[in-house]
Amino acid sequence: MSKISKFFKGGSAASKGRGGPSPQEALARLRETEEMLSKKQEYLETRIERELAVARQHGTKNKRAALQALKRKKRYEKQLNQIDGTLSTIEFQREALENSHTNTEVLKNMGYAAQAMKKVHENMDLNKIDDLMQDITEQQDVAQEISDAISSRATFGDEFDEDELMAELEELEQEELNKGMRDVRLPSVPSTSLPSRPGQNSHISCELHSCFTCVQLATQKRAEDEDEMKKLAAWAS
Description:
mainly alpha, 6 helices, coiled coil, transport, endosome, Snf7_fam, membrane
């Protein structure tokens, strides 16, 4: 048993055995004593001022009366100092008693709260609590799965393979490209011959004529092919 519990238990038993006052009664008595001493202070301060006035009044005219007044003033001042010390002691005792009473009430209320918690926990089974928390966790997981399923994007009609679709699209584009190439018309070969240079024989002129013609045809065909490819690219895009 701690010293605090022994103190409160022993103090309570002693109070009951002696019939001692309660903390409230003791605090009331201390406040009454403080009030009485405060009034005594006011009385002594008044008497001190009066004796000073008497001493001033007699002065050197009646030294004996003036000295008697000063002696009484000194006694009153001594009593006043004693009362100041007594008030300080009573104030300290009153504060200590108030704190003790407050601590007692706090401990009592904490004991009530502990008993209430114990009574509440008597009807609780830790195993049942664990099972309940596990059920709550499982239901939260189910709710999350349902929420994810509802919020996910619908995939109706997406069961086809995207790679196969892309391959089919490339085949269609290639067919269109081949079709466009078949429809391209090549230009006809010009019937006129190129003029021959002076001093060259007919054989060299024929070869030059054929060579320039081939170059011209190849250049023209390349330009037309490029135009057709641009058109096909524009159509495909």
